[in-house]
Design goal:
elongated, 7 helices, mainly alpha, about 200 residues, about 70% helix
């Protein structure tokens, strides 16, 4: 069995165990595939940067609109219909590395589009929002390119929610919508980050 095949098999086992340390995993098999480890470390660093930028915008929304706690806004969220972009392919019992990374890639593309609503909401922070959009697009493209370089088949999954932003009926709904777009994006990034981090530690 080639080293890449062994990597993909271990990747599936790891991501099904939700972020717990794998005891007794044959770490030497992973450490020998330098291209795959480089792929993980590069995208891990990029994901960390994007997480930091999203957190900065969340603080701006909190300070500007006093929208800071999700539990206080859940009823409004239901009215807006803003859904979390899924990453279930990274947890499936029938895990395939191609499917997980493809879903991360597609999710980044969806959030790139949804950030347009945040840009409208925070014109004074346009440079940060535009940087975040650019980074999300670059990370998505980077994952696509490196999947191709590693010989991983690419799969396209339909995205939900943020790719089609609802028309906000009021400025308050726009503010809450921007709040949840950022909160959902942060959760999405945290899931992707944990997957990359645990793999990179093998």
């Amino acid at each position: 069995m080639c080293s890449l095949t062994r990597v993909l098999a271990l990747l599936g086992a790891l991501l099904w165990a939700p972020w717990r340390v794998l005891h007794g995993a044959p770490l030497a098999e992973l450490s020998g595939d330098q291209d795959f480890q480089l792929f993980l470390h590069k995208n891990l660093e990029f994901t960390r940067k994007i997480k930091g930028d999203v957190a900065a915008l969340q603080r701006v929304v909190c300070d500007t609109f006093q929208l800071c706690k999700e539990e206080e806004l859940l009823l409004v969220r239901q009215d807006l219909g803003i859904a979390q972009v899924p990453l279930e392919q990274c947890h499936s019992r029938n895990f395939q590395a191609e499917a997980c990374f493809s879903q991360i890639r597609d999710g980044l593309r969806a959030y790139h589009g949804s950030l347009a609503a945040v840009l409208e909401l925070l014109p004074g922070d346009a440079s940060l929002v535009e940087t975040l959009q650019l980074d999300a697009a670059n990370l998505s493209s980077n994952i696509q390119q490196q999947m191709e370089d590693l010989g991983l088949a690419t799969v396209t999954y339909p995205t939900e929610g943020p790719d089609a932003i609802p028309a906000f009926s009021s400025s308050f709904h726009h503010q809450v919508g921007g709040f949840f777009i950022l909160a959902n994006f942060q959760r999405f990034l945290e899931t992707a980050y944990r997957a990359l981090r645990h793999l990179a530690r093998l």
